[in-house]
Amino acid sequence: xxLLFLGDVVGKPGRRxxxxxxxxxxxxxxxxxxxxxxxxxxxxxxITPAIADEMFAxxxxxxxxxxxxxxxxxxxxxxxxxxxxxRPDNYPAGAPGSGVFLGRSRHGQPVAIVNLxxxxxxxxxxxxxxxxxxxxxxxxxxxxVILLDMHAEATSEKLAMGWYCDGRATAVVGTHTHVPTADCxxxxxxxxxxxxxxxxxxxxxxxxxxxxxxxxxxxxxRPVRFQVASGNLRVAGVLVEADPExGRATAVxxxxxxxxxxxxSD
Length: 266
Known about the structure:
By secondary structure, this protein is of the alpha/beta class. The chain has six helices and twelve strands. The chain has a single domain, classed as Purple Acid Phosphatase, chain A, domain 2, CATH 3.60.21.10.
């Protein structure tokens, strides 16, 4: 089974490059299941029902998110009615929506997608490690192929989750920090891992934001309003290959598309 996971879609530029390049990636990799993190898709913060519907229409099977999922008020009711849009499952009880999706691949094979959020340098929510134990117990034998989006700030916390999941999940992919890391690998017990898959959006930026505005905030310590950048658009993510019987990963491939040196702009 092939799982395609694409990192945080940032604003309108990210949505544009996703719509332009996703058909090419689907043709190139022929994934059985496609997941996209969409928590920055609406102007850099949050996602709306209309944007989620656009992504599903492109061929995305599940949309994961993170701490910005609550930024657009219109999404709250949608979260309760659309099981393919996830929010981190370790938010306290009573938060709308779910962090787990159980479904089937293009060929009818069971697959589970899990969304969790870290706590280091992030909002103080429930423990993601204890949440993972609960979620895996709930999934049980219903799916062997399990992909976890670990939305976290600290690389150490993402690595800890990778090792905590090793042998219990097919893949742990990190999101939130928007910079692709060069550590795609398969851990000893068969879990594919990447600390951060990168963002889908403008790479002539500071993690998706116009550099001049980000620098102004850093240099002056004033609350400068950020705007999404627009140059050097890329789609970033990973393709995970797995044995559907055991759930073990057999390969993981980093994706940065279009494939050209980062110094080359559009």
